[in-house]
Amino acid sequence: MSCTNGLKHWFCYLxxxxxxxxxxxxxxxxxxxxxxxxxxxxxxTFKLNKSANDLNVSYxxxxxxxxxxxxxxxxxxxxxxxxxxxxxxxxxxxxNNALLGESLALFYVFxxxxxxxxKLKFIGSANLGLTFLSNPYxxxxxAANSYYSLPVSAYLAIGAGLEYPLNKNxxxxxxxKFIHISNGGTQEPNKGINMAALNLRLxxxxxxxxxxxxxxxxxxxxxxxxxxxxxYASNKNIGVNESVRCFIFGAMANYSKQISSINxxxxxxxxxxxxVTQARLQRDQLxxxxxxxxxxxxxxxxxxxxSVNQQLGYYLFNDTKYxxxxxxxxGVSYYTPAHFSIGFSVLxxxxxxxxxxxxLTYYISK
Length: 366
Description:
Elements: H1 2-25, E1 32-45, E2 61-71, H2 74-80, E3 83-94, E4 102-115, E5 121-133, E6 152-165, E7 170-182, E8 193-204, E9 225-237, E10 245-258, E11 263-274, H3 275-283, E12 291-303, E13 306-318, E14 326-335, E15 340-349, E16 352-365
Antiparallel strand pairs: 1-2, 1-8, 2-3, 3-4, 4-5, 5-6, 6-7, 7-8, 9-10, 9-16, 10-11, 11-12, 12-13, 13-14, 14-15, 15-16
């Protein structure tokens, strides 16, 4: 496709231009060390829920480029107990399967790093962004692709690995990653693409990659509790090849107990008024309730005014057989000083997203 070819040309341009741009941005600031990282992905698709029309396992390959800055000062290390690396990335995947096609993703990079010795480092990795896909579902000429139905979907990758410096400017790392691509249930069909990846990376920094070793200084941490009350809404089509779209509304209450500088445990309850499920029940001529009531427990990362939360849910009330009893939520929220927060969350059953919502909450913190 011409659009995909154009994206690949831009990707090649970035690979050539970024090293010069990194050097131009460097001002010998040892507190924030710029990195440019090029990498190769060897991956395999997999599925947790098998059905008769699933495709066979394919073996995509990908290349990736990241520009990040690493916080190296003692204040940041004392606060987080690690060296934080954050920035932006772009990657290109060829899925080696005509049904899935190709993709180009743009995403945010977050990588905490911990020294394991004089040289070796442990790396955690999280990427969140958007991916542009070349071959979405179309009922007329691409009805076999039930994995994605929009040309733009969400991109999520999490992983961990090891890094070893080759010299003061170059370092080699290898990570194992899980990659998930889907539209969050906003448009059906949407089974999503799941990949297990081996990521081989070469990083360059223009100054010096050697990290100073700091000694932990004990201090009293002020732990906070937070109570959220909120409303959320979503909109999606009611089924494959259906143009009719309906709303999903919800209300929630959530309690968060901070246990460290960046970690908190959470518990909550939510009620879901699902017009999409109601339309499906009417179509199937079933006299059931479309309401759902769920209990959730989980964890959240606290990064200043942002929180990234992951929760496991259990339906206390679920009158239909359309959904599993257990479900998951992953979300991001931004907290304002005025006791309001805005954000989004994805509700999934196993690996299949049910819907993505936008939410507004009022919080009480002490």
